[in-house]
Amino acid sequence: MKNIVILISGTGSNMAAIVRAAGRQQWAERLGARVAAVISNRPGVQGLRTAQQAGIATAVIDHKSFASRAEFDAALMHAIDAHQPALLALAGFMRVLTPGFVAHYTGRIVNIHPSLLPAFPGLHTHQRAIDAGCKLAGATVHRVTAELDHGPILAQAAVPILPGDTAGALAARVLTQEHLIYPRALAQLLQTL
Question: Is 123 helix (H, G, I), strand (E, B) or coil?
């Protein structure tokens, strides 16, 4: 069985979309894959409760408990490796990972980012797209590399930026596309592992 570990920091809506797709599309039978664990860097977030309700193992590695980013990453790797993941999916995981962490999971770590990369890596993507006068925004599923939001692109979806759009309204439209493309991209990737 190919284990998937999902990292979250909040509500876990992309994680929930992956879990729903995995069950609906019977990833265990079709792809030999399952969501083995959900790990958060923040305690008490909704995404952990959602994963627990789905019967998925959860853990919290609170980044505030560590003196350095390297110490946090080492503890996080230990928790992840306990599940022997074939694939590590970042789903709203709001921590920049060290090059050593990324190297440890080379070829097995994927992220979803709320912009049409290579445009607008980093934070505040929706407002930045509006401010730049873009006509389109969207989401990108990509492999993770040591350079933030610059890995090879696996899937993208675009939505129009409407007159008078706010960052919140645009974010909501983009999120609906994230929930569609992330599970599909993971399923396609799992077929190659």
Answer: coil
